[in-house]
Design goal:
Length: about 80
């Protein structure tokens, strides 16, 4: 299974959207500063996750959620 996940940083007041086969490991990597892009927002918390059977489906959903329309959909889901 592949998951699309949304993290939130209170420090930056920003969301980060990604995908992984192991969300717990990936969240740990983000919080250990192993990702240059997210290292400035530590600590990150997992606020949303969706699971998909294939890598292609997860990547497609991740791309959508990063789009303008996708961000609005995500706002509706999270509120």
């Amino acid at each position: 299974m592949y998951s699309v996940y949304v993290l939130f940083s209170k420090k930056l007041n920003k969301r980060y959207i990604g995908f992984s086969q192991d969300v717990d490991r990936r969240l740990s990597e983000h919080n250990l500063g192993k990702s240059k892009f997210t290292s400035g927002g530590i600590p990150w918390e997992l606020i949303y996750k969706e699971s998909f059977p294939t890598n292609a489906e997860a990547r497609k959903r991740e791309s959508f959620l990063k789009s303008g329309v996708g961000r609005k959909v995500l706002d509706q889901i999270l509120n």
